[in-house]
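Page 42, continued from yesterday. The earlier attempt failed because a stray header line got pasted into the input along with the sequence. Redoing it now with the clean sequence only.
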Amino acid sequence: MKIGIANDHAAYDYKVKLAAHLKRMGHEVVDFGTDSTVSVDYSDFAHPLADAVERGKVDAGIAMCGTGNGMAMTLNHHRGIRAGLAWNSEIGRLVKAHNNANVLVMPARFISLRMAMRIADTWIETPFDGGRHARRIAKIPVK
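This time it went through. Structure tokens are written below.
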């Protein structure tokens, strides 16, 4: 799987370690994030990731910032994005199984690195359930 990853300064360390983990698992990682802990604006990194997902340049995305909210809000303003915020592996599973999230968002300041890896693995491995969930997704307005 080709996975885009975006982060701000709060999630820089997690990005580096999560990207290495994903590569070890056999995934190709495309880095859209900042390369330091110097303060930046999360939206500057969320938009390029969203564009890559929308255009099919990556299969899916993972985004991280301090709370995850800034990334999620920015990503969800894009037409083809369904970004889901997860803080444990069960939420990660559900944002894929029920919401077919094409971008996973995590709050780096509120979860451990180990949990972030577990959430990402669960999200990647979970299939979309379809059925009633597809009907619900179809009702999300598209700009």
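Notes: The CA atoms of residues 7 and 70 lie 11 Å apart.
Reminder to self: strip header lines before submitting.
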